Amino acid sequence: SPTPVHVLITGAAGQIGYALAPQVCRGAMLGADVPIVLHLLDIPPAEASLKGVAMELTDAAYPLLKGIVATVDVDEACKGVDIAVMVGGFPRGPGMERKEVMSKNVAIYKGQASALETHANAGCKVVVVANPANTNALILSNYAPKIPKENVTCLTRLDHNRALGQVSEKTGAPVSEVKNVIIWGNHSSTQYPDVNHGEVSGMPIRSAIGDDAYLDGEFVKTVQQRGAAIIAARKLSSALSAASSVCDHVRDWVNGTAPGTWTSMGVVSPGGDDAYGIEEGLMYSFPVTCANGRWSIVPGLKIDDRSRGLMDATAAELKEEKAMAEELIAAM
Ligand code: NAI
């Protein structure tokens, strides 16, 4: 039988961890025929709860699950890992400054970068979920220089899927008929959800909906603010949709995107025209296709002036986050 793939989930005792682990064990991430070993990491205050999650995973008797490493030791958690899903982080509490949250997370991601670099398998693929996702991923990448830059990504697939869902609701077409929307930039409210190249049932989204004012206004706002709307409704942040999108992100990255279809991923910008002029070294969400375990930015899309402005605005926010993170690290 094939060797199991070792999947690390950090923050595994949290909400997303609880929704994600079962999906991975059912094969939603790597396929229904790929055995896995789960590595679950959390911090000491959550140790009992983490053990409880591991007990439930044992009790679910998943045929694909060949082992569980549940630990609060980051080095032990990272040993021999092939896929790392970084969900653990310091949450922004009421009244907390952005800089304060950033400072806690930069310290966490700098430390975990070293653990991954030292202990993970060569070719390990990383997806950062914890916010600020793009900047946490950038720090991780910078402090794990032996991990190839293209192997460190952040999750904007949830935003991408939210955009597909909105187009589906508006047109009445099933979501499986909607494709090639784009999330540009930061996983924050400055992200630019772009439908200019998307299709629904084989028709351009703009023609199918026939309401540019909606697409340039309410649609963009709804996707940008969806996380807040979920919190308002559930009193908890998105968890099942985040977990499902993590599985989509890794599955497409490892197994490839469907012909004629792209997705959105936060990746380090290679700079230049191939990166639509987005500054080299920013962790920025682009439209990508994946094949043979590698992503490439979709080339040659026509960018109108309105899009250009929105793409640059979210890049400016990322640049500012990057500078803030660097300043915090220098002071550490
Ligand atoms: P949660 O608070 O329920 O769980 C977070 C877990 O991380 C907790 O169990 C906590 O103990 C653990 N943790 C804290 N520091 C850690 C460390 N240094 N190492 C390992 N584990 C650590 O939060 P939830 O709802 O699961 O969300 C997790 C993160 O994902 C948050 O930062 C949230 O903002 C972000 N998020 C990102 C999305 C995206 O699309 N990129 C979507 C939804 C949430």
From TrEMBL:
It is an enzyme of class 1 (oxidoreductase). InterPro entries: L-lactate/malate_DH, Lactate/malate_DH_C, Lactate/malate_DH_N, Lactate_DH/Glyco_Ohase_4_C, Malate_DH_AS, Malate_DH_NAD-dep_euk, Malate_DH_type2, NAD(P)-bd_dom_sf. Its EC number is 1.1.1.37. Pfam families: Ldh_1_C, Ldh_1_N. Substrate binds at R92, R98, N131, R162. The active site is at H187 (proton acceptor). NCBIfam families: MalateDH-SF1 (TIGR01759), MDH_euk_cyt (TIGR01758), PRK05442.1 (NF003916). This is Malate dehydrogenase. It comes from Micromonas pusilla (strain CCMP1545) (Picoplanktonic green alga). The lineage of its organism: Eukaryota, Viridiplantae, Chlorophyta, Mamiellophyceae, Mamiellales.
